[in-house]
């Protein structure tokens, strides 16, 4: 347990120092600010479409640092050193997932409050959005780390990661958007199931990819 916590602290510290938490937050707020200019000042239209826009912004914010999640440590030999110390690749992947989520999940949930005001969303819609983000963003973090491990060591990592991640996150977007409807609870449950499936499988898939990248 202590090595895992130490890895989470290390990864989170690196992310915060490198601006990994700031860039997704700025991107998220920029999307919320610019979208009304594209749609116009029609409040009902903004309120109806704003939640889906913020979900897309959350997805892209999770994708922004994906090329820095695994590749720098693979290239510098950190993953080899951790393996020599007896720390499994699955534990390293789990720590990356937790640290990645902490670096963008809670900040985006806070940023959703002013963003919802810009998009004319009411309090009930904001609560549904916050519940969906709380459930779905861990799945996005797990998917981001898995894709980062699969593309580690390859050229054009950022573009390739986007091509891999965007189709895979479609269920999270569908259920997250569906959970924004008033009185809708089934979509939120399906969102939780999809996110839990990603969180459960990601450490093993990412760990296997990291082992393959080292060999």
What does this structure look like?
This protein is mostly helical. Helices cover 82% and strands 0% of the residues. The protein has ten helices and no strands. The longest helix is centred in the middle third of the chain and has 30 residues. The two termini are 27 Å apart. The model has no long low-confidence stretch (mean pLDDT 84).
Features:
215 residues; mainly alpha
Proportion of residues in β-strands? under 5%
End-to-end span in angstroms? 27 Å
Largest sheet: none
Query: What radius of gyration results from the CA coordinates?
Result: 18 Å
Mean pLDDT: 84
Reading the helices and strands in chain order gives: HHHHHHHHHH
Which geometry do the CA atoms define? elongated
Q: Note poorly predicted spans.
A: none
Structural class: mainly alpha
Number of strands: 0
Helix content: over 70%
List the total number of helices. 10
Task: Give a brief rundown of this model.
It contains ten helices and no strands. The protein is an all-alpha fold and 215 residues long.
